[in-house]
Amino acid sequence: MKALTSVDFFKTPLVLKITAIVLISITFFYLGRSWSSNGYQQLIFFSSAPQKSVAISPNFNKSFNITALIAQNQSKTLPDKTPQPEMDDSSRTDKNRTFGIVDSDGRMSDEFEVGEFDPEVVENWWNETGVESGEKDVRVRVKRFELCPESMREYIPCLDNVEAIKRLNSTERGENYERHCPEEGRGLNCLVPQPKGYRQPIPWPRSRDEVWYSNVPHTRLVEDKGGQNWISKEKDKFKFPGGGTQFIHGADQYLDQINKMVPDIAFGSHTRVVLDVGCGVASFGAYLLSRNVLTMSIAPKDVHENQIQFALERGVPAMVAAFSTHRLLYPSQAFEVIHCSRCRINWTRDDGILLLEVNRMLRAGGYFAWAAQPVYKHEQILEEQWEEMLDLTTRLCWTLVKKEGYIAIWQKPFNNSCYLSREAGIKPPLCDPNDDPDNVWYVDLKACITRIPEDGYGANLVKWPDRLHITPGRLKSIQMDAYMSREELFKAESKYWSEIIGGYVRAWHWKKFKLRNVMDMRAVFGGFATALIDQGFDCWVLNVVPVTRPNTLPVIYDRGLLGVMHDWCEPFDTYPRTYDFLHAAGLFSIERKRCNISTIMLEMDRILRPGGRVYIRDSLDVMDELQETAKAMSWRVALHDTSEGPHASYRILICDKGLSRP
What we know:
The strands form four sheets. This protein has a seven-stranded mixed beta sheet with strand order 8-7-6-9-10-12-11, sandwiched between helices. It has 19 helices and 19 strands. The protein has helices at 6-10, 13-36, 66-73, 119-127, 162-166, 220-225, 251-261, 283-288, 307-314, 349-361, 373-376, 380-395, 417-420, 483-508, 527-534, 553-558, 588-591, 597-607, 623-632; strands at residues 101-102, 108-109, 210-212, 232-234, 237-239, 273-277, 294-299, 318-320, 335-341, 362-371, 399-404, 407-411, 517-520, 540-546, 562-566, 579-585, 608-619, 636-641, 650-656. The chain has 662 residues and is an alpha/beta fold. The longest helix is centred in the last third of the chain and has 26 residues, at 483-508. It has a domain at 140-194 and 463-661: Vaccinia Virus protein VP39 (Rossmann fold, 3-Layer(aba) Sandwich). 28% of the residues lie in helices and 16% in strands. Helix 14 packs across helix 15 (527-534).
């Protein structure tokens, strides 16, 4: 055999393999030391002993508590590549929410452009909370809730508080019809029972004309108002012919008359949102729905106590509310038309304080339609009431546009010029410039004229349906810091809910749901309701803005939607069994800081129809308690991942309330 030369020796396969192994070993040795010295002591690949051979990692076949690792590494001085956690609300010095971006100098800036849509960013902004890892392992046990007594079948906690009403010094101004909620510790702690024989509600649009007697088994209105074409009972159903006290020949004919009197009202284009005061069974609002008009029908829980319950059973937007001593829970310039047909309200009492509340809620240039006996009867006392009404509306700078038959229609001015040109000392005066006309939660009525914004916001709206997607000018008036960032958030919220609802339709077949009466329990700009409209759902949504959040109600109404202010640590002013669907996004992770989760959940059970459904979209750390509370109320529950996948910090809890209690 020929002897190997030195060059040939180094070319042999064995030597090449040995050389490669040595080089790879040296490379991994230095990589391991570099990684370990960068602050992550647990990531050790090579032993620190002075031996040359490769060692097995000390971490081999071990499990670690990732939470502990994170906490340990937070003590190191490392480059911060993660977003800082949002401060708790209690640590904020500014009562207003701040939206925008931080520039390179650390200052808040509103100069930015919207890039690609990131659902996770909107999700975090929406919920404004993170997973509290320390609570994830805590198991919650909730005792099963019992049924309430049968006497509480129609119970509205804040309106049926007999003890509090008895303690009132006076009921002269209707104080007994206002909110008087139970004291802490004495709230609802049981499940409100349903009537015997309760049935799945008749679907819309049939429900406009008939409902099951067994669902609202009360005949008082039939006895009192049957002759006025309000309501009748036929076998196992209530029938609604569409009449009212002042329009016994039907609401359609009545609406045509109003349109002819003032063509500029233009139902369904110029007029989109209406308030009907003293609504009866809400036939006025029910027939406006076919004209693309949303009407909030309100009435107190008085001798005709179930009229609002009938309205909601029919599938018509309605709330229990009274003109008394406090502002109604709607913002300024909310309604294009406010209607009162024999609503039994003395508008001129106390220097016209009740009509001044109408003026606050009426949009600049909007119309007040009054159908009542003083308009057309010539008895002395009624003629005096008419003269008082003329005098008051003149001092409010309202213009009597038309008086025909039993209807009179006034128009509110578009600006403050008339108010400012009145003689000195004329009452009522203008409200103080510092008065916030959108501050409505437990705020007393004020005998002053609400100023119209000088910039024209609230009056300069485009027609329906274009206004649904156009950014309202009043977005600037919302108490947030930067106009540009608010506008971008408005657009982002609309896009966010459009994609979410589109996903629900595809994945969970929402089009098969019988959605009619829907409540968004934590609305922001009305994006959820807008998405339902865009998807073609034949339903209406009540957008509830919690009192702890920025008051976005003016924006919601400017879009042509309905909304109301509410504190979810207190009961809501509606009858039991009135909503088909409740939607709560990020509600519980915020409100649990103020009240028990079970308090809100029991209220949800009270207002949810048997057979109704709940979607809760919230952070992981509240899901255990929500599930256990739902089970304790005999709801069927299912927990789902969001579209971001199983590692996202949010989940969707879907709950179904059975048609009957087990």
